[in-house]
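Lecture notes, part 5. Sequence design as translation. It can be helpful to think of inverse folding as translation between two languages: the language of shapes and the language of residues. The source text, in structure tokens, appears below.
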């Protein structure tokens, strides 16, 4: 969601703030054009909401039939914007294919449709007047470091432990586990009052006797002996911790205006320089953990030209995200050439569905 809200009293500019008018406003990404889409007038003034002018494309473009085939992100954007007043830029090099029939440009780029650019090529989006940037990621890692865990009213902290795992029972295809009930523990296991135990099944780790002819070509790890299989399980479980499975989902809502008034502000001064999508290195004093988070939302005062609030952390997972993952996993067991199920992949999907 990219929006600007403007409040104006009854003065000589009042009559200029109308629906479809264009605002040129300072933003964290420089001056950008926004079109007013909604106005509310009262006796005291007017409040208006404006969206990036690029979103005009949902009304003034129409794509009858375009099929970018085996294209990079840039190639796909060139095809979709051809013949329009809009231009797209992307650094995504992985080729992909999508079909767009009877849709406007915004539906092709950023809708929930399975063929949309964001669903096919991925990436994160930024609008800039009549240009759109869809790169692998928005923002950068400039080394900003902060330390949370203070009792400050200007910081709202939300910690979700529901997905934390600190002890893994890794299981291979056909139910093989480590000998003598061995587990793989997180280096953070003692940072929490309880141990979070989960069995994680890796259907792509197999003994040679269980493997099929094309498994190696499909990325399956084939182990000749049990010892090799055990080592593969340990390695995969350790990789889960490297990826952060032992870290809770922590989100901070930071009021930058109130924060600047506190004595502890020096601990957070790096936040003044971050922008949407940037990585922030976070040390959590109470939990005794260090991790990285990103700026996933921000509010910017276009008049004062400064950030007033930041949301730092992870996008909140929800039921629908989980079900999308299940659907994707189910798709992986269907042989699209003849619409039959691949039996060797069924067990893992049934475990996931359960």
């Amino acid at each position: 969601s990219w929006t600007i809200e403007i409040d104006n009293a009854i003065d000589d500019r009042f009559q200029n703030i109308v629906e479809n008018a264009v605002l040129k406003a300072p933003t964290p990404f420089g001056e950008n054009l926004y079109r007013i889409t909604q106005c509310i007038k009262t006796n005291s003034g007017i409040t208006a909401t404006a969206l990036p002018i690029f979103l005009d494309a949902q009304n003034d473009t129409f794509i009858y039939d375009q099929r970018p085939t085996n294209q990079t992100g840039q190639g796909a954007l060139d095809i979709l914007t051809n013949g329009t007043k809009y231009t797209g830029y992307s650094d995504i090099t992985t080729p992909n294919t999508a079909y767009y029939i009877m849709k406007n440009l915004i539906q092709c780029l950023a809708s929930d449709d399975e063929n949309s650019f964001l669903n096919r090529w991925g990436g994160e989006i930024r609008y800039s007047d009549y240009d759109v940037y869809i790169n692998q990621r928005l923002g950068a890692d400039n080394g900003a470091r902060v330390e949370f865990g203070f009792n400050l009213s200007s910081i709202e902290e939300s910690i979700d432990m529901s997905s934390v795992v600190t002890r893994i029972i890794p299981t291979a295809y056909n139910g093989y586990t480590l000998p003598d009930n061995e587990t793989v523990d997180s280096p953070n296991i003692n940072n929490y009052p309880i141990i979070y135990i989960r069995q994680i099944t890796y259907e792509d780790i197999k003994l040679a006797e269980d493997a099929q002819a094309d498994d190696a070509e499909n990325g399956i790890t084939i182990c000749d002996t049990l010892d090799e299989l055990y080592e593969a399980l340990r390695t995969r479980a350790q990789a889960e911790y490297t990826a952060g499975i032992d870290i809770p989902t922590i989100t901070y809502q930071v009021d930058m205006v109130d924060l600047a008034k506190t004595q502890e502000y020096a601990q957070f001064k790096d936040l003044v320089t971050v922008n949407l999508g940037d990585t922030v290195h976070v040390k959590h004093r109470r939990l005794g953990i260090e991790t990285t988070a990103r700026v996933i939302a921000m509010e910017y005062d276009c008049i004062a030209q400064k950030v007033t609030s930041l949301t730092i952390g992870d996008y909140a997972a929800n039921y629908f995200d989980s079900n999308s993952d299940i659907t994707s996993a189910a798709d992986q067991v269907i042989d699209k050439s003849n619409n039959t199920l691949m039996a060797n992949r069924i067990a893992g999907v049934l475990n996931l569905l359960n």
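The translated text above is only one of many valid answers, since several sequences can fold into similar shapes. The first strand starts at residue 4 and ends at 9.
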